[in-house]
Amino acid sequence: MDILRELSAQQRQLGDDSLGFADLRRRVDVEDSGRFRYHLKQLQDTFVQKTDAGYRLTHAGHRVIAAILAGTFTGDQSLGPVELDSECPECHRPAVATYEDGRCLVSCANDHTLFTWSVPPNATASLDLPGLIDLAELLALQAVEQALAGVCPECFDPVSSQIRTAEAARPAFQGDCESCGAQIAGPVDLCLLVDPEVAAFCHRHGHSPQDDHVWESPFVRDDAELVVLDDDPVQIEYTLTLDGESLSGEISENGHITVHRTGSTEGQSDAP
Ligand SMILES: [Zn+2]
Ligand SMILES: [Zn+2]
């Protein structure tokens, strides 16, 4: 761990990312050269690479030490509960945020879960709980965007996404990475939130996915309707109505929005 930490510090301080054997040993402060060589050897090729100029971190080495420095494996910070300037769309009680075990949770007094997402513990050093929730929402939307694009937001390997339907529950988006085990999951509304045409429609009617909380989006309130047309393969029709104008379309089995139609609630649809 100290070897990785020193190589990382070297790169950050000097922009020169290699350290010679003797310098590295001195900085890690191990007297016994044979013992130091043994430990270095354990890291070599996977986390540390030997070059003509000395030793440097590999991509995996960077990722591992970044996670360690961020407190991902060690942080046990917990925050809250704190009432947010928002309410539960279901029961209209105040939205309450907590942060525990690296996870943000927004819920209400009636235990309706409005939002949950992981944020590394180091983010708690500079953000208060409402700020942490904003960050968690940004990370969630970016993760869904990446998963929809077929890329794992954690390890960048290919990831497959799908929409799951179950009776009496809102359809859910799920992306699973077989390489690193990451799971990106949430209500299907997240797929609508990251869609540019849906965002433009909402914007025209005074809603901004950037300013509203995820659980406040027009989809999760009464304004949006989701109809499961088919379970296998999944096909969902959504209709979003704001100020008498509607946007409708289809959500495919992997969460992509395939068609958009606009119209007015008076029935004068401009769809062909
Ligand atoms: Zn509630
Ligand atoms: Zn992955």
TrEMBL record:
Q: Name one Pfam family in it.
A: DUF7347
Polar residues compositional bias, start-end: 261-272
- Alphabetical list of InterPro entries matching this protein: DUF7347 (IPR055771), DUF7351 (IPR055775)
Q: Where is the DUF7351 domain?
A: 85-255
Superkingdom in the source lineage = Archaea
* Annotated spans, Disordered: 249-272
Domain DUF7347, chain residue ranges per copy: 1-68
This chain belongs to the protein called Transcriptional regulator
Q: Which organism is it from?
A: Halocalculus aciditolerans
Upper lineage: Archaea, Methanobacteriati, Methanobacteriota, Stenosarchaea group, Halobacteria
